[in-house]
Amino acid sequence: MAETAWSVDRLPAAAARADAPRHAALVRVTHWLTTVCFFALLISGLEIVVSHPRFYWGESGNVLTPALFSLPIPSSRATVPTGYGYVLPDQNGWSRYLHFEAAWVLVLTGALYVIWGASSGHFRTHLLPDASDRSLHALSRELVRHLRFARPAAADAWSYNLMQRLTYILVIFVLFPLVIWTGLAMSPAFVSAVPSTVTLLGGRQSARTLHFLVTVSLVAFLLVHVAMVWFAGFGTRVMAMITGRATHERN
Amino acid sequence: MSAISRRKMITRGLAAAAGLSGLAVAERVADRYGLVPPDHGGIYGPGESLTYAAQRLLTRHSLAREFSRSQISNPPFANEIAPPTDHFKRLQADGFKDWRLSVEGLVAQPASLSLDEVKRFPVRRQITEIACEEGWSYVAEWVGTPLADVLRAAGIMPQARYVVYFSIEGAWWESIDMADALHPQTLIAYAMNGGDLPVAFGGPLRLRVPRQLGYKSVKFINRLAVTDSLKRFGKGLGSAAPEGGYAWYAGI
Predict the structure, then answer these.
(1) What total of structural domains would you count in chain A?
(2) CB A59 to CB B67 under 8 A?
């Protein structure tokens, strides 16, 4: 089939070796470290948001200033008017400790992955779309294939398709750097050394709001990512990311 | 066992020993240069230590952002405070003329200052943002005297490493390292937005630490203690915050 032949063509030389793992050990380790950190950051981040589920734009904001938007949830602080008749227990202490520790592990893991990915050729061969795919035609063809929920080509078990590559590039090189930047912009000590971290974003409260919105995008990615893995065969794909072995035959 | 695997084991053993002693040396060096926070124990210790060490290397002398008058939040948000004690109410009824700020510990001349005496020190006014760990913030102008001036007048002893400060509300006390204590923007604030510092905002005296989150800016301060070790205070974690589960260092 033409589709299969086209997919096989883009198999990188290294992955075509019979004994080569589907995912390199470093990809597998950093993938799961990032997963653990992401959940730690998400849960602790939600706990922190619960203490003030209102968002603002600009430099400063508090319950006396109009909110850009509020989450329709109860708060862990009596000072926040939520419309609920009760106050949730305060979980901010351990949440903040966990949030920043997980952020460190995430940043160090990400740095390791990016340095390795750039020097090993991983980004070039596995993430950068092939020359033949760098066209609107290829993009629309892939988009249609995805929207039709077409069965993934067999070669997709061995290489990322165009939509995967573009999505992973967006997540790794745009969303994660943005969530780290907007997080750092809320550090009063860090911005005293590098004020542009927050002034470029339009102020402290803008940074906080953007931090939340980028997180929402990352959660949306996570949901689609897990759904696609499910669609493609959850057990085999997850095992491939754990052991490195794919059960699909090559070609 | 083959020679190669034995050699491998010896090399690995040596590497592990070097790694462990390297970590021990790193910790001693970090402690020597004041890069280890007092709440460095427990599962969150590594993250806290990384944050504090990174910030201390990066921000020892950096200045918190200051704002223009037009950016002052009007009105500022007064966070809830505990109901004042009878003792506080009596002091307030007298216009705080009997309020004292004691300066003690590792200083050559311990002192007990009245509000008027505090106000005789050099004045600094700054428009900064106070940000609560909960997420909200406001910008205000604070007027006060740099903590550094009061400490230097009392004569800081060379072994000083931290300044512990206490609220008249006994449960609230905090501490900062000398980098923050001697920082020009760390103020003993007694005025705000053109008037005396209101009680709702910590009057008559509040320590303003603008490079850290709001909970380090303790309200109603009446005692400063210069020390070389935080072990003698409370549970030895540095302040009331870590005893309540919050990080001692709040520069994030």
Answers:
(1) 1
(2) yes
Phi and psi at residue A132, to the nearest 5°:
-70, -20
Q: What is the mean pLDDT of residues B53-77?
A: 95
**Residue A109: helix, strand or coil by DSSP?**
helix
The answer to which of A223-227, A232-236, B86-90 has the lowest mean pLDDT is A232-236
Max Cα–Cα distance, chain A, nearest Å: 65
Q: Which chain B residues contact residue A96 at CB under 8 A?
A: 133, 246-247
Residue A249 lies in a domain: no
Residues 6+ apart with CB under 8 A from A8: A155, A251
Residue pLDDT, tens place only, A11-64:
444 444 556 788 999 999 999 999 999 999 999 999 999 999 999 999 999 999
- Chain A residues within 8 A (CB-CB) of chain B? 48-49, 51-52, 54, 59-65, 77-79, 92-94, 96-98, 100-105, 186-193, 195, 198-199, 204-205, 208
Q: Which of A104-108, A194-198, B10-14, B207-211 has the lowest mean pLDDT?
A: B10-14
Establish if A144 belongs to a structural domain.
Answer: yes
Q: Which two tokens stand for residue A150?
A: 């077409």
- Would residue A161 count as lying in a domain? yes
Measure B242 CA to nearest chain A CA, in Å. 8
Quick one: average pLDDT of A82-94? 94
CATH of the domain at A229: 1.20.950.20
CB contact under 8 A, B75 and A49: no
- The pLDDT of residue B2 is 54
Q: How far is B199 from chain A (nearest CA, A)?
A: 18
- Domain annotation for chain B: domains and CATH numbers: 64-243 (3.90.420.10)
Say what the pTM is. Answer: 0.90
Give the distance from residue A231's alpha carbon to the nearest chain B alpha carbon, in angstroms. 37
To test the contact with chain B by mutation, choose from A187, A197, A209 the residue with the greatest count of B C-beta atoms within 10 A, namely A187
ipTM of the complex as predicted: 0.90
For residue B136, give the nearest of A63, A92, A192 by CB distance. Answer: A63
Residue type, position A211, single letter = H
